[in-house]
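Hey all, quick one. A colleague (J.T.) asked me to put the 87F job into the tracker so the inputs and the structure tokens live in one place instead of scattered across chat threads. No bug as far as I know, just bookkeeping. Sequence used:
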Amino acid sequence: MRFFLSLERLAAKKEGKKETGLGLTVKKGENFGEWYSEVVVMGDMIEYYDISGCYILLPWSYAIWDVTLFLLSFLQRFLDGEIKNLGVENAYFPLFVSERALVTEKKHVEGFAPEVAWVTKSGESALEVPIAIRPTSETVMYPIFAKRIRGHRDLPFKINQWCNVVRWEFKHPTPFIRSREFLWQEGHTAYATKEEADEEVYAVLDLYRRVYEELLAIPVIKGVKSEVEKFAGGLYTTTVEAFIPLTGRGIQGATSHCLGQNFAEMFDIVFEDEKRERKKVWQNSWGLTTRTIGVMIMVHGDDKVPYKDVDTQKLFDAAASTARQLKAAGLRVKEDTRDNYSPGWKYSNWELKGVPLRVEIGPRDLANSQVRVVRRDTGAKEDVPMDKIVDRISELLEEIQLQLLEKARKERDDCIVKAYTWKEFMKALDDKKMVLAPWCDEEKVEEDVKARTKGESGAAKTLCMPLDQPDLPEGTKCFASEKPAKKWALWGRSY
Ligand code: 87F
């Protein structure tokens, strides 16, 4: 799957659209990669940039990160508020990492080393020591953890930061999904006991589930990563996994790791407990990125770009007063007062951009003191009395959110197949499904499955071991090794 259109072709398409009123040229179900590229560019979400793998997040997509469409449930604001409710404080650490700090974590950075970008010059002179750009901030933050944590009263120590990170990826880049620079929040915490750390790992995981399900209407499966797939620096990794039905691929939505005492050991993060004994702290780290936006487009994007000719109406005063009321109620509203486009053209334009509700006001509406509200998801139209618009529109937005989530959940559930044998497993993978299979939980077997499924569209791997485990009767065998199965694992090809 390639998500690529030449800049020239995209520009031509965009220009063409302006002149002709035409929208997307490919259907989601026909060429998913090209459809995605068209949607993000023609929907005014992304501008391409002259450095490969870097994208400009235009206001239309940045607003999703900043402010989602529902009442006051903004993505950053929602997550930031909930993170603070967990007692975590925001801080900001530098973008640059010294080589010395980076090699402290050598063992765990090794695998990632090719992705680290370095600054080697200032102006024309070579720097005395090259400086890395943070790919993640463990090595930037943990020396400060070591310095500021002294006794048990300094614990728990909980820090979050909203920032950009750079990973010089070599896999094919895709806007939002895999880019060389991206935005995220990274939470880093330290506790006196493993029990407290464990509790937070799952509390954060559930916050991430809520971001996907309650804000973006994307169903996710909470689970634990296998030993092969976990963050090598940690003890265990939990994940929320989403699914893209059209490509049959899983996609990691966000992760919450228990780091155990590995980093405490490397960075000497120790505290004196009540008995004045020196103990290593237990740590967690967790992150959610702008990938969320790409997953939302992939799951909920469609081909809808209707074109309809209607007489132009100039009822800007009524529109302005409607918009004022809705804004005062905390809704995000955009008035389209362009008079050089027909209403039909404007409908297409905003539908392409994914606006969930359109409010139309024509002379007849004005005469009847009503507005016409049109849902994007169902196309349903209804006339709403002007004095009821705030309540009714808030209700409709809630309803749309719930219906989108249910629709995506059903589609996702239809793509999960149970397999007890290798044959059933391969059949399900070929059918672009995710596979729930009894597994012996052995690293060798997972590597073996990867090798046996390696093909053009990538190898299958474990996505997670779902927290919600079906019954596993005594004597059930692993689908791949035929050894006794220990748990159900979710397998699939992934992004
Ligand atoms: C790339 C280059 C260097 C991922 C990397 O998941 C280092 C790394 O450590 C690296 N890519 N990782 C793992 C990140 C772990 C962890 N960090 C905090 C998270 C969530 C937020």
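Adding what we noticed when we looked at it: The chain has a mean pLDDT of 90. The chain has three domains: 2-9+308-411, 49-300, 416-493.
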